[in-house]
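Good morning N.,

You mentioned wanting to compare the apo and holo forms, so I went ahead and generated the holo version with pyridoxal-5'-phosphate. This is what I fed in:
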Amino acid sequence: MEFRDLKKQYQVLKTDMDKAMTDVATSGAFIMGEPVKMLEQELANYVGVKHCISCANGTDALTLALKTLGIGKGDVVFVPDFTFFSTAEVVALEGALPVFVDVDPDTFNMDPSSLAEAIECVRDDMSLRAKAVIAVDLFGMPANYAEIRKVAKQHDLYIIEDGAQGFGGWTDYDVSNSGVVTPCPKGKRACSFGDISTTSFFPAKPLGCYGDGGAVFTNNDEWADYIRSLRVHGKGSNKYDNVRIGLNSRLDTMQAAILRVKLKAFIDHELADVNRAAEYYTQLITGTLRFSKKEIQITAPTLPKGYGSSWAQYTVRLSVPSGNGTFNREALQAKMKAKGIPTMVYYPIPMSYQTAFRGLRRFVLTPHAENLSKSVLSLPMHPYITREEIRYVVESLVNSI
Ligand SMILES: *Cc1c(COP(=O)(O)O)cnc(C)c1O
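and this is what came out, ligand included:
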């Protein structure tokens, strides 16, 4: 069994995919060819944002966002303590200070009250300027932007949405820039919640290409122009007229063509398929709990009312209900592996404990992030997983603990 079965996906999409790739090879337009523009338009339409600017990867997308907001030395950017390294790495790379905020133990996403607390602590230090929040849509579900926007508004902070895992997730409410929450009958999609939002097309993400890729989303015309310049060496009227220091961060035409085929499948059926798979997982896990007298409790991931996920990961929590007992997660993974089931731990180390961030000042405690890093386990998940496979994973998990 594959953790994320990209080979099966290719077999299903093969006819369209082979044609798309051959067309690019035939055209010879490998850099900024027509498919790049078409993909950007399709992504902007789907997400519901005015501008989509594609780039080389999800990490560059975040860097482009930070540079556009003028974030650098002396600035503070709040990031969740439980995320992939990039989210905080890009802040430090710009010379700014990442301040780690705790997450909600049930949604895994940034806890708005911990954010408020961290902002207060930072305000006490006159040498620091709080500038922005990077909220992450972890494992496919949008962060709590209704609350995060309220807090950010009070303190005049920009919101960057790290939607690397969030693409396809949604909420059925809208958060306007005033921080007012209104019902949104058609839903509002991930990558539309930030002042600037970003995503990644790394192969294992909800919408992945056949290599590296990423995109930035914004409704702001001026910022969009600035990002288009930054991604091609800070170009002015053309790429040999350089008006600022930028990056070489374009999305290859080949990747754009691949993504156009994948986006269509994603919209047509993959997002629905992955949601059906998640529902079946949750149904089996909550069902087995009632009958299991095991020492270790398995908790299925929760989707709060009004939220939709693209299930970048299906992540359960393992806990010992009696309290002080511990369990060996690695041994459990080894047992699963022996049964042919790959599992992953996203993420084993909170940001604030990463070696690269050793010595950084901590402003708030992050007990939930610490706890999750010890208790999470991600199970095989993708649009092509079968009900039989899901049943086998859950049975094996219950029998292995
Ligand atoms: C994958 C990921 C990134 C980085 O994306 P790349 O395309 O690999 O650079 C950033 N943030 C989060 C939360 C991610 O999962």
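The CA atoms of residues 171 and 188 lie 5 Å apart.

Happy to go through it together on a call whenever suits you.

Best,
F.
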